[in-house]
Amino acid sequence: MGSEGGNGMIRPDAFRVVAGPCTVESYEQFYAGARAVKEAGFEYLRGGAFKPRTSPYSFQGLGEEGLKIISEVAGRLGLVAVTEVMDPQDIEPVMEHARILQIGARNMQNFSLLKRVGAALRGTDHGVILKRGFAATVEEWLLAAEYITSSGGENVVLCERGIRTFETSTRFTLDLSGVVVAKRLSELPVIVDPSHAAGRRDLVVPLSRAAVAAGADGLMVESHHRPQEALCDGEQALPAEELGSLAETLRPIAAAV
Length: 257
Ligand code: PEP
Ligand code: MN
Hints:
This protein has helices spanning 27-39, 64-77, 91-97, 111-121, 138-149, 176-185, 194-198, 204-213, 243-256, and strands at residues 16-20, 44-46, 80-84, 100-103, 127-131, 156-160, 190-192, 218-224, 238-239. It is α/β, with parallel strands linked by helices. The protein has a single domain, classed as Aldolase class I (TIM Barrel), CATH 3.20.20.70. It has an eight-stranded parallel β-barrel, surrounded by seven helices. Helix 2 runs parallel beside helix 3, helix 4 crosses helix 5 (138-149) and helix 8 (204-213) packs parallel to helix 9 (243-256). The longest helix is centred in the N-terminal third of the chain and has 14 residues, at 64-77. The radius of gyration is 16 Å and the shape is globular. The protein starts with 15 loop residues before the first strand and ends with a helix. Manganese (II) ion (MN) binds at residues 22, 196, 222, 232-233. It comes from Rubrobacter xylanophilus. Residues 13-250 form the DAHP synthetase I/KDSA domain.
């Protein structure tokens, strides 16, 4: 499950799982979370250094210090680092420390960021995960991706992470039909983030299974070695030691689709 191609690009034919904490909090915290990602057999390690928090009073991430932790830990464990870029001025340092950039839901239609990321990716072996905005149609999402590809970025992965609906039992509503539609309309890989969609850890495994069964090309899952102590999104984080059983439960479904 999930494997890097010889040229360093994300292999388009492999099922990929990106896992790790919402946010880099310290070297020790991030290393502990990353070891569990490695032990589960996943190859992509996520962690935010620049965090798009709803409240300006919430922890905003460690910034460049966080980027250094990400690249050190990913390098030490042989994992591919994935981290969000929020501002064009951070594209260069983010690319220095992570192979895969993430553009968050709140920036899906930040067209100047999309164009700058596309131009920066041209001719590199970096990739970008473009989250779907929580109020964006599938068409708007695909057009946002084209801002990146038409500016030179080739290795773009789409990520469905839930949209806003009237339902309040989950943080957002996972739009699995949007995943299938996006896959019909686009050649880009489509992965699913059940963590932000649900906002609660008890739904992460069932939604992951459903996403794989629906034909998603991969997942992005938040995990933490001590979810109760997480500085961000702890309520949706899978305990890190449960990543191994997540991998086990997905394997036969991925093999069957
Ligand atoms: C995240 O991945 O931590 C995140 C903030 O995601 P989103 O942009 O989907 O809310
Ligand atoms: Mn998060």
